[in-house]
């Protein structure tokens, strides 16, 4: 209730101030996306250059020069970019398909259990 009251007070104050109305209109009509964008311009973790990787802590150890280690470090950098995307959607369409299929599978399982409980057990 208090939250709703504060929102209404803020809305009244915003409409009384013409400068705020103008700034809100400009912001809502602008073509700039509201989410944070990748500051480096990389499209995926594969676009990260090797020069962006941290320096190896032990130059005598050959594991820091392997492709697997470089791939792991690139993914670590990619997942830490604060662009507003949840971690479970960072890989793109593949992750979206996986997460949504888990949701559909869970719904189907619960619907099946509901059906079994009320048709077989209730008799």
Automatic annotation (TrEMBL):
- Which keywords describe this protein according to UniProt? Membrane, Mitochondrion, Mitochondrion inner membrane, Transmembrane, Transmembrane helix
Superkingdom of origin organism: Eukaryota
Entry's InterPro entries? Cyt_c_oxidase_su7a_sf
Q: What is its main location?
A: mitochondrion
- Location of this chain's protein in the cell: Mitochondrion inner membrane
- Gene Ontology BP terms: mitochondrial electron transport, cytochrome c to oxygen
An annotated GO cellular component = mitochondrial inner membrane
Membrane-spanning parts: 97-117
The family line of this record is: Belongs to the cytochrome c oxidase VIIa family.
Task: Report the protein name in the record.
Answer: Uncharacterized protein
Q: Highest lineage ranks of the organism?
A: Eukaryota, Metazoa, Ecdysozoa, Arthropoda, Chelicerata
């Amino acid at each position: 209730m208090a939250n709703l009251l504060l929102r209404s007070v803020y809305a009244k104050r915003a409409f009384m101030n013409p400068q705020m109305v103008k700034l809100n209109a400009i912001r809502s009509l602008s073509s700039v996306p509201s989410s944070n964008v990748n500051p480096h311009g990389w499209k995926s973790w594969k676009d990260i250059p090797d020069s962006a990787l941290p320096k190896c802590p032990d130059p005598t150890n050959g594991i820091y020069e392997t492709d697997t280690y470089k791939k792991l470090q690139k993914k670590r950098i990619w997942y830490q970019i604060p662009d507003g995307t949840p971690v479970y959607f960072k890989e793109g369409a593949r992750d979206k398909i996986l997460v949504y299929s888990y949701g559909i599978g869970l719904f189907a399982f619960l619907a099946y259990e509901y059906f079994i409980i009320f048709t077989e057990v209730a008799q």
